[in-house]
């Protein structure tokens, strides 16, 4: 099974808008950390932060000043950030498209790791055939199927225990017109040895190992979080790391029905631990981000609010900007 950390996109496409969120890499890329920071503290307000403050916050996560400025510039070119300038000071905030995309993604992360819905015993099968000269289209289709929770039973046959929703149906039709067939039915057991069951499309033991690794890593830190001993830059850095780690699980574990999973499946424990760390550090992390931004803000300080799991479930994304916003710029 491919590592979940190799999957390029964590969040869904944004309805065809000219927006490209950074690719998710092994470890934390400067662009990924930048997006996480802004989402964690400005998603509800779309507040614009001074570029110098963003650079300073990224430095606390080990990103060099040059790497931070390059990340900001590239995110602006991709449509993830939009810039403004007052005098010699430039500021950046999440674009409307990025805020909507990240809000939907945050909701998806928690919804997909919640309690599994009852299963009717049927499977949805997506069969497709694309020639070699349409490799890019094939990659896009596979990526969309992966995001929807499907797995390859065979090369051109992907399956899921869940029904195909109307939005998902529209996305697949747009990606591969005339090349995909979708049907739903029950699995028939064969007496022959070596037959492949649908659930074999997923590496259940491998998924469990990733969950256990997450639980081992973050349980050690939980007592320090609950006792208020993680503060300042460490609080911000820890929230970023736990988010970047946990948000990969919906792609790894597509909320398979309980009937298909072993007893004691660790999904709920991992979700509860994530919420305890992420929400437990919200207040000290917010205080630190405010303090760093205050060092670079001239006049009124931007509205900074730590995003919580409750906000993620609510799908909150706001905009405090208006007609008096400064003119946009393209570079840091």
TrEMBL record:
It comes from the Bacteria. Pfam families: PaaX, PaaX_C, PaaX_M. Residues 202-290 form the Transcriptional repressor PaaX-like C-terminal domain. Residues 118-190 form the Transcriptional repressor PaaX-like central Cas2-like domain. Residues 31-96 form the Transcriptional repressor PaaX-like N-terminal domain. PANTHER family: PHENYLACETIC ACID REGULATOR-RELATED TRANSCRIPTIONAL REPRESSOR (PTHR30319), TRANSCRIPTIONAL REPRESSOR PAAX (PTHR30319:SF1). This is PaaX family transcriptional regulator. The lineage of its organism: Bacteria, Bacillati, Actinomycetota, Actinomycetes, Micromonosporales.
């Amino acid at each position: 099974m491919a590592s979940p950390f190799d999957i390029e996109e964590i969040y869904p496409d944004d309805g065809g808008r000219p927006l490209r969120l950074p690719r998710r890499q092994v470890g934390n890329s400067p662009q990924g950390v930048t997006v996480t920071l802004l989402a964690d503290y400005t998603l509800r307000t779309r507040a614009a932060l001074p570029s110098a403050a963003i650079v300073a916050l990224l430095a606390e996560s080990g990103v060099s000043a040059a790497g931070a400025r390059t990340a900001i510039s590239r995110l602006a070119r991709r449509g993830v950030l939009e810039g403004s300038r007052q005098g010699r000071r430039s500021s950046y905030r999440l674009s409307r498209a990025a805020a909507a995309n990240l809000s939907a993604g945050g909701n998806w992360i928690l919804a997909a790791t919640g309690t599994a819905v009852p299963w009717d015993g049927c499977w949805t099968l997506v069969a497709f055939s694309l020639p070699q000269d349409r490799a890019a289209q094939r990659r896009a289709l596979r990526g969309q199927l992966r995001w929807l929770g499907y797995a390859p039973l065979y090369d051109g046959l992907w399956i899921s225990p869940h029904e195909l929703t109307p939005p998902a149906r529209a996305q697949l039709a747009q990606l591969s017109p005339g090349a995909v067939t979708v049907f739903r039915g029950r699995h028939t057991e064969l007496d022959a040895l070596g037959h492949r069951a649908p659930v074999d499309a997923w590496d259940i033991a491998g998924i469990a190992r990733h969950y256990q690794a997450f639980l081992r890593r973050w349980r050690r830190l939980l007592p320090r979080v609950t006792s208020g001993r993680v503060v300042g830059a460490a609080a911000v850095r820890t929230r970023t790391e736990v988010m970047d780690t946990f948000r990969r699980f919906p792609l790894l574990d597509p909320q398979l029905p309980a009937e298909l999973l072993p007893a004691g499946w660790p999904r709920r424990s991992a979700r509860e631990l994530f919420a305890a760390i992420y929400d437990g550090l919200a207040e000290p992390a917010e205080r630190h981000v405010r303090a760093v931004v205050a060092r670079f803000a001239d006049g009124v300080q931007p509205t900074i609010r730590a995003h919580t799991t409750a906000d993620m479930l609510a799908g909150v994304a706001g905009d405090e900007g208006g007609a008096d916003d400064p003119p946009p710029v393209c570079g840091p």
